[in-house]
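pinned: reference chain
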Amino acid sequence: MTDKSKKAEFQPGRGYSKADWDAISDSPEATDEQLADAKPFAEVFPELAEKMRRSRHPPARP
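pinned: its structure tokens
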């Protein structure tokens, strides 16, 4: 299993370049007000959410 924890500094070999890291590394944390205003994915994108629901199949039984 791969480590998906957040990294405070750029580490090569994780699927993105230093330029990518620099472009997003100064993004501010979401405020409490922004989080309170956030809507569920299915409410914002109902058609896409329904497609995703329909495309998921139950796991095969052994």
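why pinned: Residues 46-55 form the longest helix (10 residues). Helices lie at 18-24, 32-37, 41-44, 46-55.
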